[in-house]
Amino acid sequence: MSSSSGDPDRLVPSGPGDLTFQKQLEESQWWSSERMDEHQRRELARLVTHALGTVPFHRRRLEEAGLDPSRPLNGEGWRRLPPLTRRDIQRSGDELCSTKVPSGHGRVITTKTSGSTGTPVSVRGTMFDAMVGKAFSLRHFLWHTHDFSGKLASIRRIRGERYDYPHGLTESRWGDTATFPFTTGPAATLSIGASIAEQAEWLARQDPDYILTYPSNLRFLAAHCREHGITLPHLEHVITMGEVLNPETRHECGRAWDAPVIDVYSAQEVGIIALQCPASESHHVQSERLYVEVVDDHGSPCGPGQTGRLLVTPLHNYAMPLLRYELGDYAEVGPPCPCGRGLPVLSRILGRERNALLVAPTGERYWPAFGSRKLTELAPIVQHQFVQKSLDLIEARLVTERPLTSSEERSLRIYIQTSLPHRFAVSFAYCDEIPRNASGKFENFVCEVTA
Ligand SMILES: [Zn+2]
């Protein structure tokens, strides 16, 4: 399975687990931005030609925007193309699917996701695109020092009773041979349906070298382990994925196990978008496989230090080309990385638009900063979730070790109010556990206000 045969200038694997491709990626990470631009222009031109010819939805839009794939695409003309939203995907259905997927791209695979925005969409991809994606998973493992003979413990959303607590499932290798085309140590996987206490007990039994899980899960897990003195003596580092990783989670993981966190920024619909730099906590966009734009409210590209909406164009999905797909995430553009890699830098990634932004009474939206780390200094809070019930009311849902005193409530209220850009009323609701959302993940802020 390959679309590169007879086309030696393409930067794609020639088959599953192609280590020659990894060697090429070792080189391309140091390319100048001009050289990477050139690569992206070529891949975009191929993709747009394909979309014009076989995807009715895009044909209309590309023609309206006056885009001609024979001219350079990743510039001003490209920005005339309206971003593709989740609503567009919901509404257009088959119109977005290619009527003629190149045969070399293999079987078409459908992924259903509700994302963090709660807008369910079905996205199609191909075996070829999946194979490219796996190569970038391996790149993460090669960028950061891993002892591949060690044990990898994953706690994630996965179907099947065999992954349930108390045993989970232990397998002889970290993943399939397309991702890891060499011998590895064992992998143990537990369904995230297990409680935090169960996960901690399971991890202590596994004694892993590496943990892979979601940031929010990690945070509660690390806190639990710290509080209960659960150490993981062989743990080298933790890998996070699937949600935005915040500095508090890194901090909590360091306190619990003295272990760093290495983040993979991905979205189910498009796969890996950016990998944490081996030399810093910034992320490098994986430009060989996606064209990523960060744009301001007017659609203009953001410069270093500016934060804007992320638009991604996966370059190898020919089943359902996503041109300028608006994920709902925001990112801050970083300056060139001191590590010397030419891949663009995202210095901060901010979570999804709909559930994560606070709406002020003025209608303005704010990134909600509740100063979560300090909260636990004010009261014995085990778990918390903030729910914006209306334009002037925040409900703090709390799981606490014991009932709070009225003076603790008062200081919490004042602290929350002063952390926010406008004066909100704050109510408290106490519960035994804050349930995960439909995707099996925690959300620490939910906005129930419909704009
Ligand atoms: Zn770097």
Please sum up the structure shown.
The chain has 451 residues and is an alpha/beta fold.
Structure overview:
This protein has 451 residues and is of the alpha/beta class. Among the domains are: 19-135 and 267-351, Rossmann fold (3-Layer(aba) Sandwich), CATH 3.40.50; 357-447, 2-Layer Sandwich (GMP Synthetase, Chain A, domain 3), CATH 3.30.300.30. Helix content is 28%, strand content 24%. It contains 11 helices and 20 strands. The chain has helices at residues 19-28, 33-54, 56-64, 86-92, 127-143, 196-206, 215-227, 247-257, 353-356, 372-378, 406-419; strands spanning 108-113, 121-126, 152-156, 169-171, 187-191, 210-213, 237-240, 261-267, 271-276, 283-285, 290-295, 307-314, 325-333, 345-350, 358-359, 365-366, 381-390, 393-400, 425-430, 445-447. The strands form 4 sheets. A 12-stranded mixed β-sheet has the order 4-5-3-6-7-8-9-10-14-13-12-11, sandwiched between helices. The termini are far apart. Residues 2-6 and 114-119 have low confidence and may be disordered. Zinc ion binds next to loops.
